[in-house]
Specification:
The structure holds two protein chains of two kinds. Chain A is of the alpha/beta class. Chain A has one domain: Rossmann fold. Chain A has five helices and twelve strands. The longest helix of chain A is centred in the C-terminal third of the chain and has 14 residues. The longest helix of chain B has 19 residues. Chain B is globular and about 55 Å long. Classes of the chains: A alpha/beta, B alpha/beta. Chains A and B meet through helix 1, helix 2 and strand 7 of A and strand 1, helix 1 and helix 12 of B. Strand 7 of chain A pairs antiparallel with strand 1 of chain B, so a sheet runs across the interface.
Chain lengths: 198, 294
């Protein structure tokens, strides 16, 4: 089978969280992948995924070991970055009740917006850029995007709340595409990476 | 369609904790220290296992007030323990809104024959194991996360190592066994057949597997990670050490850089005394928590 994505090298930030799940999705899409467990590995990537995990932990350790400046440089160079759940929190320029971490996307985010773990859920979402068929969103202690500034476009909403956005080369979702077998979100991101790479 | 508390969101919650350290805390101050040190979750307790061991008597679920106070001060997930088989303690913990319940041998079992039916809760459960059969029985009952039992409150990693090696060894055995041997293997280790099939297909447990029970130093944490743990629980090891904040940070960093000896050397420096440990062979059978609820 002709593989569109095989020459791409996509990193998954490997500090903590659902790293292997994203790698599994990338594998299924046919893209090259690397678990980024050293900051130097961030150089020479075609794109980066910041996975779900504990944003406080990932935020603290990414600052300590020199990941943050390199991620910001990637964003500035137009390389695609995809944040899921904790990754979305890391990317936001504004966080309710705390200081932002990477502050790369023009969005405001509220953590644990649907309540505690026992309120975590799955729900079908309409995401026009992924086609008509509903997309299963897995929400785990999920954040929401309470507002978007100019430049950021809303990709999906759930019960009137914004749960996925894109701002140029930056993509973010408050749910976990890596926990489903539906590869459309990863394919969409890899499409962004391919466009940048050619 | 919208569905709350599916097995996928319970199991997914544990997947978000991978590569992280979950720390036992007994008050809001300790919870803040754990959070600022980079813990991925805290376990809210009335006493850490070392103190439970020293105090004796019946150890029960913590006072809801302690748990609630801890939930108020941190944004990371809060876990709490119920006694093995005590489904009412579990119901109370779910009502309080804890993010994960540990049905734990550290507390005195309430039922010596049956565990909690964990499928009937929307809050996820973690359970301890010493071998693959025990792990798969707990998953069969609905556990969404597994940890080694080790020997809690001892500061001695030897039992956690034994249990992790045992689980990994039996997973390899399942992987190598031809299909016609799997039913007998399931019978021999007391595991549900369907879960044995899943282990063969996946080459690992169908849920996240953490190390617990005796981890006291950064090197202990890294050892368990190199043996294949997805993350670590540290019970008494942090707040029974000389300098809890420093020890907490060091264990978090060691868990991240578990395969980088130079970094492990750097984070292990000048931590003061780790908790005073116990020799397992000096414990009587009755003093061993790991044999509770198999």
């Amino acid at each position: 089978m002709f593989n569109l994505f095989r020459d791409l090298r996509i990193g998954v930030l490997g500090i903590q969280g659902a790293v292997s799940e994203h790698i599994e999705s990338l594998k299924k899409c046919g893209a090259g992948y690397v678990a980024v467990r050293k900051a130097a590995l961030l150089d020479d990537l075609d794109g980066l995924i910041i996975p779900g995990g504990e944003s406080t932990t990932i935020g603290r350790l990414s600052g300590l070991y020199g990941y943050q400046d390199r991620i910001s440089a990637m964003a500035a160079a137009g390389k695609p970055i995809f944040g899921t759940c904790a990754g979305l929190i890391l990317l936001a320029r504004e966080l309710e009740g705390q200081d932002p971490i990477l502050a790369l996307m023009s969005i405001k985010v509220r953590r644990n917006a649907f309540g505690r773990q026992k309120e975590s859920f799955e729900a079908d979402l309409q995401i026009p850029v992924l086609g008509e068929e509903p997309y299963c969103g897995v929400f785990i202690r999920a954040p929401i995007i309470t507002s978007v500034q100019e430049g950021a476009g809303v990709l999906a909403q759930f019960q009137g709340q914004i749960v996925a956005v894109r701002e140029n080369n930056l993509l973010a979702a408050s749910f976990h595409p890596e926990l489903t077998d539906d590869l459309r979100f990863h394919n969409y991101f890899l499409g962004m990476a391919l466009q940048k790479a050619v | 369609m919208m569905e709350i508390g599916t097995f996928r969101v319970k199991k997914g919650m544990a997947e978000m904790q991978k590569g992280g350290v979950i720390m036992d805390v007994v008050n809001p101050e300790q919870a803040k220290i754990a959070e600022s040190s980079g813990a991925v979750a805290v376990m809210a307790l009335e006493r850490v296992p070392a103190d439970i061991r020293a105090t004796g008597g019946v150890a029960r679920m913590a006072d809801p007030e302690i748990i609630q106070k801890i939930m108020e001060v941190v944004t990371i997930p809060v876990m709490a323990k119920c006694r093995i088989g005590h489904f009412v303690e579990a119901q109370i913990l779910e009502a309080l809104g804890v993010d994960y319940i540990d049905e734990s041998e550290v507390l005195t079992p309430a039922d010596e024959r049956y565990h909690v039916n964990k499928h009937s809760f929307t809050v996820p459960f973690v359970c301890g194991c010493r071998d693959l059969g025990e792990a798969l029985r707990r998953i069969g009952e609905g556990a969404a996360m597994i940890r080694t039992k080790g020997e809690p409150g001892t500061g001695n990693v030897v039992e956690a190592v034994r249990h992790m090696r045992q689980v990994m060894d039996q997973i390899r055995q399942v992987q190598n066994a031809p299909d016609e041997e799997l039913m007998t293997l399931a019978k021999e280790i007391g595991a549900p057949y369907e879960l044995i099939l899943q282990v063969k297909k996946l080459g690992k447990l169908p849920v996240v597997n953490f190390a617990a029970g005796g981890i006291a130093t950064p090197a202990d944490a890294a050892l368990m990670m190199q043996l294949g743990a997805d993350g670590v629980f540290v019970g008494s090891g942090i707040f029974k050490s000389d300098d809890p904040q420093k020890m907490a940070v060091a264990i978090v960093e060691a868990t991240l850089h578990y395969d980088d000896p130079e970094l492990l050397a750097a984070v292990s420096k000048g931590l003061g005394d780790a908790m005073h440990g116990l020799d397992i062979s000096l414990l009587t059978q009755a003093e061993r928590m790991q044999t509770r609820g198999v």
